[in-house]
Amino acid sequence: LDLAKQQKAELDRKKKMLESTVNENLAKIEECEKGSAMMVENHKKLTAELENLLQKQMDAESKVSMLERTNKDLNRQINEIQDSYDSESRDKQTLMAKMRDLQATHNQTLESLEEEQDARDALQQKLTTSMQQLSDAKRAAGTLTVINTDCFEHAHLRGRRIRMHQ
Prior knowledge:
Layout lengths: L1 H164 L1
């Protein structure tokens, strides 16, 4: 009986140890389950955060792509504006050269005009002098004509008188 009591006590002690171990293991399992639940929750949070980051990355890549297209368009516009500017600069230089040529031609024309006006004024002066001389000559010729006419009439009358007397 003692042996049975001892065995029973030993069994009770082993039972308590096993129960204690089971309780410890159950507590550990519970802790593991809580840890697992926390890990699952963390996993969900991390997955959501990763999805959010992936979405942000896609948005950023989309913006980068759009900015690259905009950059290409702006570079194209800059090149077009530069080409236009270069063309307008060449046109301006051509027009400036033409303007200088026209200014030189204008100046030469003004000089020619002044020379022509001086020549015209000289001719006008000569014409005025010639007209004055012609007028003077006509007056002198008119006076001579009157004198000649008087002389002619006088000679004619004398010739009549002489014929009458004959």
